[in-house]
Amino acid sequence: MTEAALAVTQSLVEEFTECYLKSLGGTIEKRGDTWEVAIPDNEDTELPAGSLSLLCDADRDEDATGESLHPESEFFQRILREATERRPTGNLSIEADRDDVEIPQWIKEGDVEVIEAQFTPYYDRTAIVVLFEVSIETVSEYQQEFLRAIAIDHRSEQRLPALEETFLQMMSITTNDSPTTTQSSLSETDARSLLNTAQDQLMNSIQNEIEEVHNEASRAADAEVEEYRQLQQQRIQELEEERSKLSLKIDELSEAINGSDQNDRVEALKKRKEAKGEYEEVDSELGVLHEQRDQGFPQKQEEIRKRHALDIRVTPLTVTQVEYERGEIDIELVEQGVSRTVTLGYGSGIGTTDTVQCSSCDSVLSVENPLNTIKDSLRCRACSTSND
Amino acid sequence: MGSYDLVDVEVTHESADDLLDSLSEDGAEEDHLQSIQAVRLQAGQPDSELRSLKELDENSVKLLEHQVDAAYRALFEMDGKALLADEVGLGKTIEVGMILKEMHFRETDESVLILTPAQLAKQWQAELREKFGLEFVCNYDDEFEDFDAHDYIIASIDTAKSERHRQTVLDRDWDVLVLDEAHYVKNEETDRYDLIDRLSYNYAFFLTATPIQNELTDLYNVVSLLRPGLFGTRDVFHQYFVNSNQETLVNRDELQDRLNKVMIRNRREDTDIDFTDRTIDTRTFNPTPKERELYQAVSDYVKGAYSQDQGQKLVLMLLQKEVVSSPVALKETIEKRLYEQSELTHADELESILDLIEEIDTVTKQERLLDIVEEVRDTVEMGRVIVFTQFRATQRQVLDRLASEGYTVHAFHGGHSSSEKEQIVEDFEEEGGILVSTDAMSEGRNLQFCNLLVNLDLPWNPMRVEQRIGRVHRIGQKRDVFVFNMALKDTVEEYVLERLYHKIDLFQQSVGELSSILSRLEESGTSFEDQIFDRLVNAGSEVDLENDFDAMAVDLQEQRELADKLEEFNNGVFEGFDLGESDD
Fold this sequence. Notes:
Strand content of chain B: 5-15%
Oligomer: heterodimer
Distance between the termini of chain B: 23 Å
Number of helices of chain A: 9
Low-confidence stretches of chain B: 576-584
Helix content of chain A: 40-55%
CATH class of the domain at 213-307 in chain A: Mainly Alpha
Radius of gyration of chain B: 28 Å
CATH architecture of the domain at 213-307 in chain A: Orthogonal Bundle
């Protein structure tokens, strides 16, 4: 699944900042690495109105005055925060360019030439694309955060992975041909229902990633439990040694009591009492430890495993209603004088929706096993190669 | 993998109320596009470039692609906890220098502790200063007070773990810990391991060329220090990855996947480093009759004395080595024995050896050394030649002799302070001439500005020989390297050279290859030197001796095969750590 986060390079930072400031009605005059910016009084922004110098060069002169503009600069972080909050929901229309349809990979990878392809839209359809931030946290692993796009068709509530790709491509930062977004017409009820479906699909799609962290955290917890168990075993050994020493001491003192005079006897009795006291203390601690050990230190285990537990947070950050068209494409193919037209279900932004099988072996045509010939019928590469 | 209980997973879905509220709000058309772009930028890694690179002075340090790649991955893909396990000679110090420079640039390095073997501390300090402009105080500096008095410290790991400093080191929360030669902490029962285990730090970079010294447990221990729990418990690790006889690996793919999260290993063959050629010129000379007589007398004495008292082995071995280095080295040891030990047996024999020493007026090796330096003085830059000897007495005499012939000479030995050593190397670079050094030079110092080296005498430990050569033949050496070996005919040195070193192709082995052979020998408890000595003193005749050395060469070949097996094992574990495959 495609990661929706963008690698933040200086050039993206500059492009985004330029678009954003212009959208606020600002003007920018570039003088090398220094931008002289004028921001008008605008209720959509908390940036102070007036002029400002932005310094794009990280190695700038110490004496230069103005705000730095780089991926971690305060100014850039501030406009990012502001922009994310401005309009997290909206609408995007994907209109198909009828002559520029996307040819399926199983044809592109194959050996047959495409003469023409034309899309005929029949219905307008709606989907939503949600950007989710997922954070997975546990004590033993670094916190993992990622951003994922999930597209769900409004009518069928099916996931549309191809639309996710198209959406991310269209919504990337580029200076030319930015798509136009408008206000969404989705009702809150519909949006909530689709969002819930998207959430379920998201959880399915990140299952492997979660499982990996889950296993690692569990192993780390296990290692810690084992370490604790060894430490306690060591303590048990120490206490057992101490107990046998005390036991020996008590025996010796008992003998001394029998064979000595009054004064010494009293002294020995005192000492024996002390030793017995210590013995009982050690014995009782040992008893507790033995019991805990036999049960496998349940409390400690629970405490450790609880600490290593995974905390997964899923936050929907944006919802985009996407309007697209569904219909059919006719693809005209030609091979050594033989031509044939293939008609397939198609959607703008989602590509072909039908699969095609090899007429000889019935296997589905794919990138790995593409179309090889259309002479008699549509046949895959595997069949054509084996018949050669 | 293995059996362990899974910990709980708690999933929280944050409320979407605010988000859905915005459905009914008005706004400008392009605002939604910008919100999405901003969310995507916010989630992106904040600038994954090494921004400090352009600040580096290209004249001071030439960065290689694999080094930049390693620094980048350690910082950005491993979140600042990495085991840098490149093969020897690929510049792990440079990688750490880049990492520290970048952290400095990003101001995430308020306190940095670099722990190294004692003999490398000053070299680290110099490299970081010269190549990266990073100032560290070293525990051998006069200004060093304690581990809580400075923010950027390079220290010997043994100083850090000493009674005096340990608590201060442990009391501090370090931003960055660098541990050089991390395999020294492979044993979990040592004080060193305990120190690292208890240290508190945010980022850590461990360096070693040989993560697996003996068995996979070594790797488990080192990795567990960096990323506790990555491999689970020791038992589970063993059960899962190693079959019972330690010979083969199981579940290799998973081991690699896990290692990939914490370890970077570049192999020489995968890098674009172009090592220059190495030419070996071994010259054996006929000793003068007097020298031969002396050699025979010493050998007989050593043999006789050893057969009576094996407790004297070390000193006898020393005599056997000194006799081929120089009579003056031998003389010092014998005099010491004669005049400092009252109950010495065979004192008369030693006295007569002293007489033989007195009779020697021509020291063949030193005369021939003059031939060599004269022969090459015009062909190497500033006439720079390094002459290695094992003995201070030989060193002094050679220095006097060369100086009397008008050569510019420099002496380097273990008796100098660290700053003196720095100065000597600097003088040698600037003034040229001949540097006569003991093996104190062999540890870590880089002398790439020189490309001609003479082994006046040969250590019986091949690793020492390679360490000598490694001082000049490493990254940064732009010229071909010439190594002259000097030996006297029909002496132990000739046997070692001809029968052993040449047979295992010692002089063409890379440090990495050789160290794997020798670390096997060392771990098995058989010292290479002991083996040579035993054969020397136990041989009944000349023919026996030759046969014995041949037999040893066969043993060595076997060790080499075993080492190859170990290498294969290492490669098995580390397969997939090549350059280029890491980005998958």
